[in-house]
Each structure stands twice: as C-alpha cells, then as structure tokens.
Design goal:
2 domains, 14 helices, mainly alpha, Cytochrome p450-Terp, domain 2
Length: 318
C-alpha cells in the first residue's frame, strides 16, 4: 500500500465521499493490483491473498479517513502492532511526532477482536455466497463491506450514538424513557437488546470496561452526550421494564461511545467494523474454499402463492 500508484487511485473519489464507499471500491480494486492472488484454486495464493487483505485493510481504512478530512496519508510503521499502527495512520500529522496512547491502543485492539466474527450474519453470508461462485477474494470481501454498510447491520453503533445526541441532556432522559415505555409511541431504544443474546451480550461486558477506561483517559466524563449514555446505562441495568425484557446495553451501545471518545466521527464507525470483521470474513471464505463438497450458493425459495389458478382465455382477460 506504500506505492504511489495505489495512492493515486484515491484521487478518483470525491472528497465528500463516504469512507465506506471508498472502502468498497478500493478493496475490490485490489484484484487489479494483485492479479496473482485472484487464483482461488492455488492454496498458496489463497493464503497470500488472505494475508494481504488482513494487513492492508487498516491502511485502506486510514487512508479513506485521511482522504475524507483532507489530510495527507500516513504510511504504516513495521515496529508498531496492528492497533497502534492503525491509530497512528488515522491521527498522526506530518508536523509533529505521534505518540500512541496505550489505553486507546488496547481499546482499539479489543474492539477489533470483539467484532472479528459473529455467526452467519448478513455480511458474512454475503461473503460466502459471493465466494461460492468462484469470485476472487478481494471481490468477496468488497461485497461483505457493501452489505455491512447497511444501517440495519454495521450502522447499529452509529444509530445508538445518534439516539444519545437526540436525547441531548441528562434532564431529558425521564421523558425519553416514558416514550420508550409507551406502546403507542414509535420511538426506539437503540443499542439495547440483541437478536442472539437474550441475556447480557458477553461482548458488551468487555466493551463496557474499555469504554469507561477510554472516557477516563481522554477526560470525556464531562461530555454531556457521554453523561447521557452513562445515565441511560444505569437506568437500563436497574429498571424492571428493561430487565424483564432483557434489554441490556449491547456492544453497539458501548462501542459507539468509545469510538467517539477516541476521536472517530460517526462516518468511520462502520469502516472500523469492516476492518475488524475482515478477519472473520477471510476465515469463513477460507473454510468454504477448502471444502471439496462446496457448490455455488442458491438459497431455497419456497413459492407461497396461489396453489391453483384457472386458465382464462386471452380474449376474456381484463
């Protein structure tokens, strides 16, 4: 990713392009730069492609971020670990030396681990379905990024943060809670509950600890939005309405707050999710490619229309 030829590729994007749009286009374009790694029948090349994707994804994401805010690209450093390197590429500037904060690096590392893989979700299934057709790995991962871009999937932490901003102040929480409990009100509680976890999301417990550590480290405890989050968290963990319905804070609730405190805009939340999930996508794709019984995916569709319809002569049709 250090060669100027690839960096010039970014110049084809508009400055106001969403970072996820840049990610989809750039990752898919890797097939043009690394044509050797598109040979999916070569086990060695599959491994090389996997390494390339996992290694380059943070650089692509950081460049998408830098490009969107009009700052120069920052190249990776071999002596730094994965998370520290990524933070440096996102926040370093040429005019001064960047010092990696160990608390933020730890939080970034755990965020990547917690989001690496999570069952057959929409984006993971998309990667496998694309891969089953024999598409190259770069195209498959790009398809997963495109699916993750949807607000119902990768945008959940952004939605949770938007909810907190709409509440605005701790004094507004009682009215918000009242509306949430009102069956006739269509307001939704974002960042709480989960389709899979009917009790506390185990990933959220780890993210919760890191969230509070990051807030303390950056001195953001006095931020009004973060105060709203902490008060809402306390209410949800003790209010019988939420407890009985198992509406515990999930990982999206804590990750959105954490990423904002670390300095990332909401437009980057899903990009960070994609960086983390690439490891899981690659693992799923590799497992599928090594399965000799694998065939092209074709989800079953059951017809549920009229079982029988009488034939009407053409002249009598309306």
């Amino acid at each position: 990713m250090l060669h100027a030829q690839f960096d010039r590729f970014f110049e084809g994007f508009r400055r106001d392009a969403h970072p996820m749009a840049i990610m989809v286009g750039t990752v898919g374009a890797l097939a043009a730069f690394y044509h050797d790694s598109t040979d999916i029948n070569d086990a060695k090349q599959r491994t090389i492609a996997s390494h390339r994707l996992i290694a380059k994804m943070p650089t692509i994401a950081a460049r998408a971020f830098k490009y969107s805010i009009g700052q120069p690209f920052v190249s990776p450093r071999n002596e730094l670990d994965y998370a520290s390197n990524f933070l440096r590429m996102c926040f370093a500037v040429p005019a001064e030396e960047y010092k990696v904060n160990p608390v933020l690096a730890r939080a970034m590392d755990v965020f990547f681990i917690l989001h690496a893989d999570h069952e057959q979700n929409a984006s993971t299934s998309t990667v496998r379905l694309a891969g089953s057709s024999g598409a190259n790995p770069f195209a498959c991962i790009s398809s997963g990024i495109a699916c993750l871009w949807g607000p119902a999937h990768g945008g959940a932490n952004e939605a949770a943060l938007n909810m907190l901003e709409e509440i605005g102040h701790v004094d507004n929480i009682p009215e918000f809670i009242r509306r949430v409990k009102d069956p006739n009100d269509d307001i939704r509680l974002m960042g709480f509950g989960h389709r899979v976890y009917k009790n506390y999301d185990p990933r959220a417990k780890a993210m919760q600890k890191l969230c509070h550590a990051v807030l303390k480290e950056v001195g953001a405890e006095d931020n009004p939005i973060l105060k709203v989050a902490m008060e809402l968290e306390k209410i949800a963990l003790n209010d019988e309405y939420f407890v009985s319905r198992k509406l515990y804070p999930n990982i999206d609730f804590y990750s959105g707050i954490t990423l904002r405190a670390m300095g990332f805009p909401t437009s980057m939340f899903t990009v960070l999710f994609a960086v983390a999930r690439t490891v899981g996508w690659i693992a799923q794709w590799t497992e599928m490619m090594e399965d000799e019984s694998q065939k092209i995916g074709r989800p079953r569709q059951v017809y549920t229309g009229a079982p029988k319809r009488d034939y009407v002569e053409r002249a009598k049709r309306g």
